[in-house]
């Protein structure tokens, strides 16, 4: 509904806060950012459409759960764990990320992980989230599907009660595993269908083409679920096209390499396909050499519905505010851009119309403010 092109909001005045806010701005860019823009980023209601719950596992929680569950981590300390987060590419990150998941064992562990993220989301004024979880990472090592989803749903319910943050949960298949494993995962999810909104596809893109998952995505659609998929992160723009053709997804996660092909960008724009871009992730996983190379401006100029998200914030040095501040500093984003990105996030979310209207009202009250 709001994915139609917006023309900005020329003439609106921005409310400025009197009380200074503490914002996690990277030290190297702090001097470039206008404090009023930082304040706006902090106060604007945010919608996060691309965050992996397993990617919110902070080392402090990992160590506590490791001790409780008698699991050993290959790091001497919390600091050593964080210091090891220097990734050469997507695969080198995934190896670390999957290994750390071993500390998640009980239903309460998954609740704690989820609630810790929601606490952080609340502190950053995120009002609606659509997180992924990777059930196969856990079922493959013997943790029952129901334990995983039960704990996550407990955490989401706690977060909604405590903070008013609404959510749409996305079950993501691991593309480095077989289509049969994805189908078995979907079958395990059938008793929980009412609690899921969509299926997703993540993990190693190169060598694991989307077509292999066409059948399980079709089955998910038949069960009433929507679809999203990672594409155009490691893979080039043709992976975006192939993903749309074979999986018929409503959103593309990352999708930044679509910017290499004007025809692909035109297709995304004409079909209102939302891209969930994650600037810090793109730099940390060396999809681009630095933030100024994240093609957010190119995509916006082509009329693509782009959004800003955090991906795996515990591993990439910052949550959603830091992604907004970093990309704003790198590309010189304006309040108009922030408004447009926010409208795209609300419009591209899977929230119902009533919730979208509430989120739009919250957004307007900040951008229209006295
Ligand atoms: N799983 C977690 N983060 C991911 C990413 N950035 N790309 C693919 N799979 C992921
Ligand atoms: Zn991701």
Summarize the structure.
The protein is of the alpha/beta class and 370 residues long. The chain is 47% helix and 11% strand. The structure holds adenine and zinc ion (ZN).
Q: Trace the largest sheet across and list its strands.
A: 3-5-6-7-8-9-10
Largest sheet: 7 strands, parallel
Query: CATH H level: which superfamily?
Result: Metal-dependent hydrolases
List low-pLDDT spans.
1-23
* Beta-strand proportion: 5-15%
Total number of helices: 17
Number of strands: 10
- Radius of gyration based on Cα positions: 19 Å
H-E string: HEHHHHEEHHEEHEHEHEHEHHEHHHH
Helix share, percent: 40-55%
Keyword list:
370 residues; alpha/beta; TIM Barrel; seven-stranded parallel β-sheet; three-stranded parallel β-sheet; 10 strands; 47% helix; binds adenine; binds zinc ion
What does this structure look like?
This protein is α/β, with parallel strands linked by helices. The protein is about 45% helix and about 10% strand. It is built from 17 helices and 10 strands. Strands 3-5-6-7-8-9-10 form a 7-stranded parallel beta sheet. It has a 3-stranded parallel beta sheet with strand order 1-2-4. Helix 10 links the parallel strand 7 (about 225-230) and strand 8 (about 250-255). Helix 16 (about 335-350) runs antiparallel to helix 17 (about 355-365). It is globular. The chain binds adenine and zinc ion.
Task: Please write out the topology.
Layout: H1 35-43, E1 46-48, H2 59-69, H3 78-83, H4 90-100, H5 107-123, E2 126-129, E3 132-133, H6 135-139, H7 145-163, E4 166-167, E5 170-174, H8 179-189, E6 198-202, H9 214-222, E7 226-231, H10 237-247, E8 251-254, H11 262-270, E9 274-277, H12 279-284, H13 296-301, E10 305-308, H14 313-316, H15 320-331, H16 335-348, H17 353-367
Parallel strand pairs: 1-2, 2-4, 3-5, 5-6, 6-7, 7-8, 8-9, 9-10
Helix pairs in contact: 5-7, 16-17
């Amino acid at each position: 509904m709001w994915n139609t092109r917006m023309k900005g909001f020329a003439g609106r005045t921005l409310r400025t806060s009197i009380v200074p806010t503490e914002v996690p701005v990277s030290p190297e860019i702090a001097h470039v950012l206008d404090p009023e823009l930082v304040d706006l980023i902090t106060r604007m209601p945010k919608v996060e459409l691309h965050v992996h719950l397993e990617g919110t596992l902070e080392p402090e929680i990992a160590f506590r759960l490791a001790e409780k569950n008698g699991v050993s981590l290959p790091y001497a300390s919390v600091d050593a764990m964080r210091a090891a987060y220097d990734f050469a590419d997507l695969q080198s990150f995934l190896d670390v990320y999957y290994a750390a998941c071993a500390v998640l064992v009980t239903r309460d562990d998954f609740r704690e992980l989820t609630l810790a993220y929601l606490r952080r989301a609340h502190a950053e004024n995120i009002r609606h989230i659509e997180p992924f979880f990777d059930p196969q990472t856990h079922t493959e090592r013997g943790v029952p599907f129901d334990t995983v989803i039960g704990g996550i749903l407990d955490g989401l319910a706690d977060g909604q009660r405590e903070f008013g943050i609404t959510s749409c949960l996305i079950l993501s298949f691991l593309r480095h595993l077989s289509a049969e494993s994805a189908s078995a995962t979907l079958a395990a999810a059938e008793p929980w269908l009412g609690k899921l909104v969509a299926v997703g596809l993540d993990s190693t893109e190169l060598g694991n083409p989307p077509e292999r998952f066409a059948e399980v995505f079709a089955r998910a659609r038949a069960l009433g679920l929507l679809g999203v998929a990672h594409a155009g992160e490691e893979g080039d723009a043709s992976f975006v096209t192939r993903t749309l053709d074979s999986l018929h997804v409503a959103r593309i996660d990352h999708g930044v390499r679509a910017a290499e092909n004007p025809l692909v960008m035109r297709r995304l724009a004409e079909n209102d396909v939302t891209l969930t871009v994650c600037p810090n992730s793109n730099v940390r996983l060396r999809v681009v050499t630095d933030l100024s190379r994240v093609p957010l401006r190119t995509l916006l100029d082509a009329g693509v519905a782009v959004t800003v998200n955090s991906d795996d914030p515990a591993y990439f040095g910052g949550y959603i505010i830091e992604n907004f501040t970093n990309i704003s500093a790198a590309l010189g984003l304006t309040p108009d851009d922030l408004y447009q990105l926010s409208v795209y996030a609300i419009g591209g979310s899977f929230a119902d119309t009533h919730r979208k209207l509430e989120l739009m009202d919250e957004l307007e009250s900040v951008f229209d403010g006295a």
